[in-house]
Design goal:
Oligomer: single chain
Number of strands: 0
Helix content: over 70%
Number of helices: 18
Distance between the termini: 50 Å
Length: 346
Amino acid sequence: MLFRSFIYLDTMEALHAKYPDDHEITAFYGLAILGSAHDGRDFAIYMRAAAELFDVWNANKEHPGAAHYLIHSFDDPIHAPLGLPMARAYSKIAPAAAHAQHMTSHIFLAMGMWDDLVSANIVARDVQTNRQQELDEKTTVCGHYPWWLEYGYLQQGDVKSAEQVLTNCKERIESSPTNGEKWHYGIMRAHFIIDSENWAAIDTWEIDSDKLGWGAVDYYFTNALAGIKTGNVIAAQENLDSLMTYAEVPQRAEEVEHKSNQIKALLLIEEGSTEAGIEMLKKEIDYEFSLPIEFGPPEIVKPSSELLGEVYLELGMLEEANSAFEAQLTRTPKRYISLSGLNETN
C-alpha cells in the first residue's frame, strides 16, 4: 500500500508537470501529496499539498476538490484559520453530500467553534440518514457524524442533546451492531461520561463488554477512571485489569499501555505516592505530545495534560495546574474541561 501511494504520487506529479493548468489534475496531485503522509500529520507534506491546491482555489472558489483537500491540509489548531474560507464554502458547494457537510467541521473542531461543529454534523447526519432511508438501508446512529455531534454538544455544555445521541447508539448496540458501531459506542460512552463528569452514569450506560469488540478498551478505561473519581479504588483496579488484557493484541498494545498508565498514575496518587504518580503522568504527556495532532475528537478520551492539571488543582498547586491546562488547550482548543480548569487557577 505504501509503495502504491508513492507510485500514484509520482504519476500525478508527472501529469501535473505536463498539464499545469488542468484543475482536476492539480487537485488530485494535491490529494496524492496528502496521501504520502503515512505516519500521521506531517506539516511539511500538508503545506506542500496546500501550495498546489491554492492554485485551483484561487482560480475557482467553487471547486469541490480544492475546498475539500485544503480543509484536510489545514485541519489542525495551528493552520485551521487558513481553512476557514474553504469550510464556509464547501457546505454550499456540495449540499447533498453528507461527507462534504461533515468535512467543514474539521476546521470548526480545530478552532473550538462548537456551534458551527454541531450545526455541520446535524446536517451531515440528516443528509446521510435521508439517503440511507431512500435506499432502504440501516441508518447510522453509531458512527462518525454522531460521534462528532455528541462531542460538539458536550463542548457546548448541552448534555441533554449529547445524551440523546448516545441513547440512539446504545439501542443499536443492544441489537445487531457492526464492529464499527461497537467501537463508536465505546468512545462515545467514554466522551459522554468523562466530558460531562457524570461519573455515576457508568451504570446507566453499562453494557455487556463482550458486545463491544475494540470499544471495550474505552469502556474499561472509563469505568476505571470513574472508580478513581468516586473513591472506589477496588472498581478502578478491577477495570484496569480488564483493560490490560487488550494489550495482548498488537494493534491495540500502544493505546492500551498509554491508557493503563494514566490509570496507574492516578492509583499511585490515591495510594499516597503523589510524586511518582505525577512523574508517570508527565511521561504520558510527553508521549501524547509526540503524536501527530488528531483529526477529530480526542481518541485519548481523557488527555493526560488535562488530567495532570486536575491533579494539581486538587493539590492546590495553581501555577502548575495553569500550565498543564494551557498546554492541553494548544492541542484541543477551547475544550470545555480544560478551559474550566484554567479558570479555576485564576
